[in-house]
Amino acid sequence: GAVVSQHPSRVICKSGTSVKIECRSLDFQATTMFWYRQFPKQSLMLMATSNEGSKATYEQGVEKDKFLINHASLTLSTLTVTSAHPEDSSFYICSASSGQYNQPQHFGDGTRLSIL
Amino acid sequence: GQQLNQNPQSMFIQEGEDVSMNCTSSSIFNTWLWYKQDPGEGPVLLIALYKAGELTSNGRLTAQFGITRKDSFLNISASIPSDVGIYFCAGPNAGGTSYGKLTFGQGTILTVHP
Lengths: 116, 114
Prior knowledge:
By secondary structure, chain A is mainly beta. Chain A contains no helices and 11 strands.
């Protein structure tokens, strides 16, 4: 089945640090990747949609200068949390879609970000 | 925007019991997806439904796409401890496809006591 790899799985860093999270589709080409944020025991909240070779589309209320997204190839998208603060601590999850008919998006294993 | 109401929010059951959860919406969905999320991991697709009235099984899991296209249910038979996790229903945003932006239900937290 489709595999999406997300790295790192856990990050602990000091306030003010910028953190980069990678999302890779391992066995298919992902025309679109999605970035979600999830708080404990809550649903997934879509942050942005990333299309290969174009600028990401951010959901309302998500700061694009805070959460930088790059989708440079059909297998890799990155999310950079710039100048992270404790309130940015959360579980970040990516998903990838091949864009093929009736092929749902598949999710990475998530990144637990803790800002001290 | 579109919303998916998922019930129940949580369930505490004994191993071996059957489980049923559902998802409803005021909007029509053309696709229903059911995901399971284990603690500390990303969601994994369990079942995808593409046609109204469709009934699909995946091992002990069975899901149905409601005939009105506004609801779906997921059943788990003979639950086991590894069924523990959060179950999400999801559907494409209005006019979208299963590979596009999704709307998620609030999730059903399942706890199985041995």
